[in-house]
Amino acid sequence: MSSSSTLHLNQSGTTEFVFRVFTTSPKIQALLFCFFLLLYIMTLCGNTTILWAVYAHTSLHIPMYFFLSNLSLVEICYTTIVVPLMLSNILGAQRPIPLAGCATQMLLFYTCAGTECFLLAVMAYDRYVAICQPLHYTLIMTQKRCIQLMVASLALPFYLELHLTILLFTLPFCGHRLEINHFFCDAPPVLRLACGDIRVQQAVIFVMGFFILTVPLVLISISYIFIANTILRIHSAEGRRRAFSTCSSHLSVVLLQYGCGILVYMRPKSSTSEDEDWQLALVYTFVIPLLNPLIYTLRNKDVKDALKNSMSCTAASELP
């Protein structure tokens, strides 16, 4: 057997990773654990509220809220893929994750993140049809079409990220226990631990990041160019305001999501700092999934009305 084959077999059998320690101070560890746990619980509560509101109220059984509920479900999934393991490593000793576990976490996380990008593009298309072609909306955005768009938004990132994960984890890693300068198995810090030639993998990460971030962003931009053109041709100020209000929440989420994604994965490597990537990852792992349901509940009249009706019904049922 060749030496390279022996190295690969040894790697797949014994290599494991540990994550960067936030701090060695027990007091700060406890504070960080409580802080991140609180953010995680708030994220779960916010996104679960969206899911419940859409499921429980027939007024929200339309394509726009079908996609919004799936967006919330994706955010619950991708924070859950990362946060529990991260919390377990904040307190106590570094807990190792095997090679296969790291690859699985990376695949699932990137699949969810990619699904979110494509789902945002689908939501922009839904707004385009609703505003620019309102008479044909029910004919175009059928239940079957909505399910097809949702499945495609999930299947395409999974297919792409599966190949990326296989490409990364067939590299040789030098050592039995390696520390990832991150709090989860993200591709750039894992790639830095490989001891082979990583130029091909770096190029693939850039191209795939470009595709998953840029293609949906282009589709979103095209949709909003047509939407803006249609809104500007509406004569009444109230009509323009109502049309724009249905898009403002989505635009806010797009700016948050793509701002962080482009900063992390599309910057030239010469300007990339490991600490900056680590800090930005905290933003898109905790802050964005927490803010998204707040944006949609605070800036969306239909969701606010549904939640108010639910609270009114609950309060009325508790009265003697």
From TrEMBL:
Annotated Pfam families: 7tm_4
Gene3D superfamilies membership: Rhodopsin 7-helix transmembrane proteins
UniProt keyword list: Cell membrane, G-protein coupled receptor, Membrane, Olfaction, Receptor, Sensory transduction, Transducer, Transmembrane, Transmembrane helix
CDD domains: 7tmA_OR10A-like
Domain G-protein coupled receptors family 1 profile: 46-296
Bilayer topology annotation: Multi-pass membrane protein
Main location: membrane
Record's subcellular location: Cell membrane
InterPro entries: GPCR_Rhodpsn, GPCR_Rhodpsn_7TM, Olfact_rcpt
SUPFAM superfamilies: Family A G protein-coupled receptor-like
TM segment ranges: 30-55, 67-87, 107-125, 146-169, 203-227, 248-266, 278-298
Keyword Cell membrane found: yes
GO terms for MF: G protein-coupled receptor activity; olfactory receptor activity
Keyword Transmembrane helix found: yes
GO cellular component terms attached to this protein's record: plasma membrane
Record-stated family: Belongs to the G-protein coupled receptor 1 family.
Protein name listed in UniProt: Olfactory receptor
Species assigned in the record: Sarcophilus harrisii
